[in-house]
Specification:
The chain contains ten helices and twelve strands. The chain is globular. A hairpin with an 8-residue loop joins β11 and β12. It is α/β, with parallel strands linked by helices. Helix content is 29%, strand content 16%. α1 crosses α9, α2 runs parallel beside α3 and α3 packs parallel to α5. It binds S-adenosylmethionine and iron/sulfur cluster. S-adenosylmethionine binds next to β3 and α10. The site of iron/sulfur cluster has 13 residues, from α10.
C-alpha cells in the first residue's frame, strides 16, 4: 500500500520521539533548567509504539527514525529497535543521538538491527562544546563515533548547526573531516525552535553562505538524491571520501519533497514539524481503539498535512516548541 497526501507527496517515513528527556541542554534547544518533563505514564510504552508502527507499516511507512529528546537515555532502547526491525514492511531504522551514550550502546544497537546513525555535534572545541551543550562530554562523543565506525555503521552522519558568531568558524573544519573519513557531514540551518532567547535571523546562516565557505576547500560536486532520501542537498568536495550535505528549513524550504510524519513521545501524530496540528494517537490506543481506528487516524493526519510551513512569516512569540519536545 502507498500513502499519498493531498499534494501528491508519497509519505513513507516516520520520526518517532521516544522521550522528551535529555542528558544535555543545548542552548538552541532547551533552557538550562530543562523543560517540564512528561511523566512516565504519559509517554508511549514500547509495545504501544510497536503497535502504532505496525499499523503505519501496513499503510506504507517504510522508514523509521528514532529520536527525542535523547533517545539513548530511555531504558532498553535496543529492545525497541529490535521489535521495530521485526515489523513487516519496515525497511530501515535509524537513530539521531547526541552521541554521549553511544559508546555504551553502539554494539547492542547494531545487533538489534539499527542501520543508520546521525550524531549531532556542533563543535570540536571542548570549551565551545561545553558552552553549546552545557555538558562536557566531547571525548565520549568521539569515542562513540569511533566505536560505531568500527562496528560498520555506514554512513556515519554528523549533524552540525552553525550559529553566526558562535561556532561558524568551525564550518570548514567539519567539512574537512570528509577528506579522511567517509562521514556525511550535514549542516543544518539554525531554526527558531525552542530557542527564542538566542535565536535571531542574523544568527541563522543561510545554506548558500555555508556552501560558499566550504567551496573554498575545493569544488563541490553534486550527488544525486533519491526520492525521500531526506531534505539534505549532498555534495562531495573534490578528492574527499565523505559527503557534505545542507539542510535549509528556513532559506529554501523543502516542503515539496516532504515524505514524513512525526510521532511525539506522548503519542501525538504531527504531520508537519512547523505546524501545531497534531492528532492524539495515545488516547485512541488507550481507549481500546482497533487497528482500523488507528489506521483512520494515520490517514486523517496525512489528509491535513500542510502544503508548506510558514515559519519565515511568524512573529517570534508564536514560534513552535522545542525540538526536544517534538522530536528533531
Ligand atoms: N538528542 C538528539 C540529538 O541531539 O541528536 C536527538 C534530538 S535533537 C532535538 C535532533 C536534532 O535537532 C539535533 O541534530 C539538533 O541539533 C537539532 N536541533 C535542535 N534544535 C534546533 C534548532 N533550533 N535549530 C536547528 N536544529 C536544531
Ligand atoms: Fe538534547 Fe538533542 Fe536538544 Fe541537545 S539538541 S538538548 S542533545 S535533545
Amino acid at each position: 500500500m502507498e500513502l499519498t497526501d493531498s499534494y501528491n507527496r508519497k509519505i513513507d517515513y516516520i520520526r518517532v520521539s521516544v522521550t522528551d528527556r535529555c542528558n544535555l541542554r543545548c542552548i538552541y534547544c532547551m533552557p538550562s533548567e530543562g523543560v517540564r518533563e512528561i511523566t512516565h505514564t504519559e509517554i508511549l510504552r514500547y509495545e504501544e509504539i510497536v503497535r502504532l508502527l505496525s499499523v503505519a507499516a501496513d499503510l506504507g511507512i517504510k522508514k523509521v527514525r528514532i529520536t527525542g529528546g535523547e533517545p539513548l537515555v530511555r531504558k532498553g532502547l535496543p529492545s525497541l529497535i529490535k521489535a521495530i526491525s521485526n515489523i513487516k514492511g519496515i525497511e530501515e531504522i535509524s537513530l539521531t543521538t547526541n552521541g554521549v551514550l553511544l559508546r555504551n550502546f553502539a554494539r547492542e544497537l547494531k545487533e538489534a538491527g539499527l542501520k543508520r546513525l546521525n550524531i549531532s555535534l556542533d563543535s570540536m572545541n571542548p570549551n565551545r562544546y561545553e558552552e553549546i551543550t552545557r555538558g562536557n562530554n566531547l571525548a565520549d562523543v568521539w569515542e562513540g563515533i569511533k566505536i560505531a565506525e568500527g562496528l560498520g555503521f555506514s554512513p556515519i552522519k554528523i549533524n552540525m548547526v552553525p550559529i553566526r558568531g558562535f561556532n561558524d568558524n568551525e564550518i570548514k573544519d567539519f567539512a574537512s573531516l570528509t577528506f579522511n573519513k567517509p562521514y556525511h557531514i550535514r549542516f543544518i540551518e539554525f531554526m527558531p525552535t525552542g530557542a527564542k532567547e538566542i535565536w535571531s535571523k542574523d544568527k541563522c546562516i543561510p545554506v548558500q553562505e555555508i556552501r560558499d565557505l566550504i567551496s573554498e576547500l575545493g569544488e563541490l560536486k553534486p550527488i544525486k538524491n533519491e526520492w525521500g532520501s531526506g531534505p539534505a542537498k549532498n555534495f562531495r568536495i573534490d578528492g574527499a571520501k565523505g559527503v557534505v550535505g545542507f539542510i535549509s528549513a528556513i532559506s529554501d524550504h523543502f516542503c515539496g519533497g516532504c515524505n514524513r510524519l512525526r510521532l511525539t513521545s506522548d503519542g501525538k501524530l504531527r504531520p508537519c514539524l512547523f505546524s501545531s496540528l497534531e492528532i492524539d494517537l495515545k488516547k485512541a490506543i488507550r481507549d481500546g481503539g482497533s487497528d482500523e481506528d488507528l489506521r483512520r487516524i494515520f490517514v486523517s493526519a496525512i489528509e491535513i498535512k500542510p502544503e508548506k510551513h510558514y515559519i519565515n512569516e511568524l512573529p517570534p512569540e508564536l514560534l513552535i516548541k522545542s525540538m526536544s519536545k517534538i522530536g528533531g
